[in-house]
Amino acid sequence: MTSESDDAYEALIQFLYQAPVGLIQLQQDGSIEMLNPMASQLLMPVSPDGNLANLFDVLQQQAPGLRAQCQAYPYAHGVIADGMRLVLGSAGAAEPGGRGARPEVLALGVLKVDAGRMMAVLVDATAEVQREQRTLARRLDSAARIDTLTKLPNRAAVRELLQRMAARPRAASGDEGALLFINVDRFRQVNHTLGSPVGDQVMVLMAERLRASVRSGARPGGDGNAQGLGEVAARVGGDEFTLVLDGLAGAGVAESIAARLQQTLGKPYRIGLHDISLQFSIGVVYLGAGGAAADDVLRDASVAVAVAKAAGGGQTVLFQPAMREQAARRGGIEAELRSALAQGQLFTVYQPVVGVLPDGAIDRSAGVEALVRWQHPGRGVVGPIEFIEIAEQSGLIDAIGEFVLRAACRDFAAWQNELGARAPRLLAVNLSRAQLGDASLCDKVAAILDASGMQPAQLQLEVTESLAAQGADIQQQLQRLKALGVKLALDDFGTGFSSLSSLHLLPVDTVKIDRSFVSLSDTSHHHEVLIEATVKVARSLGMSTVAEGIETEAQAAVVRRQGCDKGQGYLYSRPLPAAALAAWIQAR
């Protein structure tokens, strides 16, 4: 019996010493009573002097809290530590004797055997950690290609796909790919009026519609068997999406798909109590053999989107190479315009709005309209026709509009002090679409009026006819401005979507008759009749009228004959700086 016990003990000892893991028996204070060769091999890299007398001392740098953790363990036996990672540093050259590269990470487990002894287990966890790191890297790599809000592929994923498509040989069938770049028109208005959480929900719903389009076959006549056709929807920016198409046979297919998407994405989005209607600008770029770099394709598509937006939005535009030069010029103007705002190169001028008197005289103090100019360091004075559209598309129009309003109110207040009773009685300032979409517009206007000392009724804010006739959000903003006490004018009347029969629906005080009617009024009876009708309807609704673009005495006579209240145009004065405007008023 004793012989059998001795054999079993010997077998156990052999197993412990040959075990592929490190085994250590230690006392409560960390003193090592026994360790097997694997434990010694694993610990030697952290104990250059070879002193393995105390485990806590050996691992002081890698596990500084191990001593306290073990000594504070309250139970007579149990697991004190399990899988504790000990980082040793980068793997080096093979150990002497050919035992392989030194471990980078050890895993330590400690078991309390009784009141005075513990057992520790050490394993080389380097390979396990490396596997975990590779898995994590793959997950991070995947996450880096997914948009967190919509879970669609993101710009990085689209770039990779376009690069792969550009590198492949052209199919013998002549089939080709295309990129559709989809941008939501005036989406900032949704965020401004309803808040960014609602905007995010709209983005998620848009993504779902794009996914559904891909699944059902986005191309006309899609029958649900679109898999394998290479349609990939992605979100590449805040309000920007793309659809990568492959295997397109024949010209015009991408444009047809874009037209279908305009209908699909253009249906109202129901968010809470809001039905949100949107329109989209879509740029189309076809991908040829040996195609352009991915960034160039994305750039060309965004250029086509900019062209669509410049044309009013809600359109699809096929990219043409000539658009690059136009985009470069626009980009240059945008950069210069940003500098102009920062460096104070913008300034205001004022065109008189005169009272039209029956005897042919004019009232020079009726009012003025504020206009913006740019004192370009190289080109001299630049008019708004060259930069306002770019300002609207780049988001600079808010800052420019606020600058004009603030400067004009300041000048208006100065005229009151300088000219007294002869000072202009009304200041007209134009509002852009972006400003009307700003939920804080009324607060800004009120603050500027308060700072200048102007009364709200002395300020007239002007919106174009086409803008005033748009959705409920615009109407609500106009009503809020009206409640503030400022006057509202309908600019360029006759060029938009309103009609005389619907004029009563708009909360405006003044109708400004477009210059296109006035310019022909002295030679075309038809245009004079239109002016007459506009004046009569406006007057019946309690609105005043202003005729724009009066350049000749004959036109002024027509305007006077038809009863217009005020006139504006080069016949009376071109736009003037503030000081020159004051001098013009005094030159009676």
Automatic annotation (TrEMBL):
PANTHER family: BIOFILM ARCHITECTURE MAINTENANCE PROTEIN MBAA, DIGUANYLATE CYCLASE DGCP. Residues 330-588 form the EAL domain. This is EAL domain-containing protein. SMART domains: EAL, GGDEF. It comes from Pseudoduganella aquatica. NCBIfam families: GGDEF. It holds the Pfam family EAL. Residues 175-321 form the GGDEF domain. Transmembrane segments: none annotated. InterPro entries: Biofilm_reg_signaling (IPR052155), EAL_dom (IPR001633), EAL_sf (IPR035919), GGDEF_dom (IPR000160), Nucleotide_cyclase (IPR029787), Rev_trsase/Diguanyl_cyclase (IPR043128).
